[in-house]
Design goal:
Rossmann fold, alpha/beta
């Protein structure tokens, strides 16, 4: 799977290049319709804003990770709505860049943990049919249901451990069982299920 870097700012582009030397990424200063459909594109948000609507639509048919010097929650939602598979800070730690690349390579979505927390918080404020959505939890044990509700409200594993007086390892085991029983991938999917 080929990695393309769409960025016209030298400092950021060079940083990403240094981070992914082993993958030997291809640099794009402008849009190219010849990007293979199964490719990953790390795109600088400023560079994306220079694309036409058609170029943007074509680009987002690929696995696109949008990175911004000034990350913004509304921009993240906008790019995810367009089809981006990830959003983060252009200058985030190298480990996060590698984690994002790996997630996109596996066909998964990647967001910085802070953005996931913000999304869960926003979902919680948009509650409407919360009681109806709780019926899906009937397949869970009493303790799994408690953990699921706390996960869905954005609590960390440690916070759940402290509140329920169980170990973090037990919380993680309950979380795995919850995701499996409800056919969900992660806590964001759980939150969406509970609060949509």
């Amino acid at each position: 799977m080929r990695l393309y870097i769409l960025c016209d700012e030298d400092q950021i582009r060079d940083r990403w290049l240094n981070c992914f030397t082993a993958v030997n990424p291809t640099i794009l200063e402008n849009f190219s319709s010849f990007i293979e459909s199964n490719s990953i594109v790390f795109a600088y948000d400023v560079s994306l804003k220079r694309l036409s609507d058609l170029e943007t639509k074509i680009l987002f048919l690929r696995r696109v990770m949008v990175l911004s010097s000034v990350p913004d929650f509304d921009d993240a939602q906008h790019f995810l709505h367009l089809g981006a598979m990830g959003y983060g800070n252009a200058m985030m730690h190298e480990s996060h860049l590698h984690s994002a690349y790996q997630a996109l390579e596996e066909g998964k979505v990647w967001l910085h943990p802070d953005f996931i927390t913000m999304m869960i918080s926003q979902i919680r404020t948009q509650k409407s049919t919360h009681d109806k959505s709780l019926a899906v939890l009937d397949v869970l044990s009493h303790r799994e249901r408690e953990v699921a509700l706390m996960l869905g409200d954005g609590a960390t594993h440690q916070e759940i451990s402290d509140a329920l007086d169980i170990t973090v390892r037990t919380v993680k085991a309950h979380a795995s069982a919850i995701y499996q029983k409800l056919s969900l991938k992660d806590r964001l999917a759980l939150s969406l299920l509970l609060h949509s």
